[in-house]
Amino acid sequence: MKALILATALLSASPAAAQALPPDPLGSPMWDFIADRAFGKDAVVRFDPRVAVAFPAIAENQRVFPVQVDARGIADVVRVMIVIDLNPIQIPIDFTPGDAEPFVSTRVKLDQRTPVRGAVQLRDGAWLVGGAWIDAAGGGCSAPPVSRVKGDWAQHLGEVRGRLWHDAAGSRIQLAFRHPMDTGLVDNIALYHLEELTLTGADGRMLGHVRMQAAVAEDPVITLMPRARAGEAVRFAGRDTNGVEFRGTVAGQGTGG
User: What is the C-alpha separation between 160 and 174, in angstroms, rounded?
Assistant: First the structure.
């Protein structure tokens, strides 16, 4: 009986040991918490420089900080995240590519000096992570949006501008929304943000689905790389946390810069 109990204990302990998180090369105090929340307790996680995370060396404006995650050099990517360790809202973008490249670019808010990461999930469930630290003055998540201060946000809510390029490198779409993207961290202003965006091709195939949180900057700009055919239009459908819908079609512009 003692031998059976010991064997059972060893078997139950093995999976946890096999899934131990690797040490964080960035030394973030939030790494264990972030990994558990973003990837799941038993996820296989590896740091991989092929997850290319690009952002400016200096955060000149912590309310509007551009971040790009490019994993086009990695096969079988099924999910792409932007992760900001020390933000109160830590996962501004969670992108599921359909018929699209594993690439996303947007602008985010920074609340303090923090690691900014890209994380991609492979078809087998494993996660690959890249990123670096950025110095920031802070307060990006707790400052009221400019449109709230000016008082004109409601006049422009729902406006969308879109551009779609087809060239030798593939297709690229950029969508710019007028929206305050309220974090709920400003006195007397409730949480209110765009929460999802879906792209479809002319034949209805799913090109990509983006889940957004309020750490995306005010008036969000999202750039994706759908595998749209030359001349093919792309449809988009989005919704915010109050149920306001954003729908439209973006026609291709041929060869673009």
Answer: 10
